[in-house]
Amino acid sequence: MTDRAQVLATLRDRQAGDLPVHGGRTLAYVYDSGLPDVDAVGREAVASYAGTNGLDPTAFPSLLAMENELVGFALDLLDAPETAVGTVTSGGTESCLLAVQAARDARPDVDRPTMVVPDTVHAAFHKAAHYFGVETRVVPVGADFRADARAMAAAIDDSTVLVVGSAPSYAHGVVDPIAELAAAASARGVRCHVDACIGGWVLPYAARLGRVVPPWTFAVDGVTSISVDTHKYAYAPKGTSLLLHRDPAGRRPQYFAFADWPGYTMLNSTMQSTKSGGPLAGAWAVTQTLGDEGYLRLAAETFDAVDRIVAVVEAQPGLSVLVAPDSTLVTIATDGSCDAFTVCDEMAARGWFVQPQMSYAGTAPTIHLSVSAATAAHLDDLVVSLGESVAAAAAAGPVAVDADVVAFIEALDPAALSDADFDGLLAASGLVGTDDADQGGLALPDRMAGVNALLDVASPRMREALLVAFLDRLARPVRGSGGS
């Protein structure tokens, strides 16, 4: 056996190379309340329930009690009727998957089910379509980056089992016209799901603070289900989300039961069977600790930070806000005098992680910020770092991709790539480091602008193929690592 202290020391050493999850400087992937005591409560709850199993609520009734209370908190936030119900899932993707699966299984009369989505819908819905055999009818958004309700209504037909809108969309941070989408769906007897994974726990407080928020909750007639993540703006530990339904009938197709085998009767409310009770306990503990007033205070701090960031961006030469945010997500565009990917690199060099977004449908690459409450205390530094990063990016000039590399990429068929093609793509992208034997020759460069520029010129299918190849080569076993 390896000494406990040594194992924990190894964990700390490895974690030092990760993005920071506290301090408000990581503006994607993590959501930080900035309250150490709240974080500690969540972690202690996760640890205390790590060995429990959510497979059978009769075996661990405390998990059922916490789930019902957490769902109730969310339903009160989202104007739900008394009939509404919900389920705790492992994250936003599982909530979205289950929303699609339930919609499909509620319509056994439809042989080739379809769902109508805006092109800004989260990729989780395309994943659900792939898994569950549901065709996506993708409708381009309007010039305001919101779903085109009229065009989506026209795409609904007798095969449609679900219409989806976002509150807000991840890429642009705006709320789709949910009232119009829900009305169109309801008129055809179709379910309407609102993906509020990232906005569901903060937009209700935005409205209470007097901010203008387009209607999107269960108060909108025709909204049949909503997904909302507690690991985002509920500031709970990673690993929980909620899928909420207007009534039990809407949730029932989500369940899976099977008794025709010699073992126990399987009954699942989610895609998982065995699941640790730790994340649920962590979410319950954090929401109980913060409470309604705590979340209102954190929302006020977060939106104050959003407003200041928007003002700074609009005043910064070379930058602009792509679209005024409805929530906590800010999308920054550049005017060509500086390169978005280089700005991201320069921000990283100054201790800030901001997320690059590729070009799409005529929109040039952008910079994404998910603002959380902890960022508010560091705004002065953010402002300075952003100004310096833009200046450095302008001085460096645009990132150029070699014409021969572009031609090489364009000549390949992403559906028929060989291992040799993959290796050539990885080498061309700068994702191969010949001295990095521990990772099979793969290595991320210190600066990602060149890699992102190459990915940006590739088609979406080619980009997917390249990144799948890269991930496949990264995820290789380390033999003989079983300790001593």
UniProtKB/TrEMBL annotation:
Which Pfam families does the entry link to?
Pyridoxal_deC
Q: Which GO terms describe its molecular function?
A: transaminase activity
- What keywords would UniProt list here? Aminotransferase, Lyase, Pyridoxal phosphate, Transferase
Signal peptide, first to last residue: none
**From what superkingdom does this record's organism come?**
Bacteria
Instruction: Show the InterPro entries listed in the entry.
Output: GrpII_AminoAcid_Decarb, PyrdxlP-dep_de-COase, PyrdxlP-dep_Trfase, PyrdxlP-dep_Trfase_major, PyrdxlP-dep_Trfase_small
Does the record carry Transferase as a key word? Answer: yes
The record's similarity note reads:
Belongs to the group II decarboxylase family. Sphingosine-1-phosphate lyase subfamily.
| Name of this chain's protein | Aminotransferase class V-fold PLP-dependent enzyme
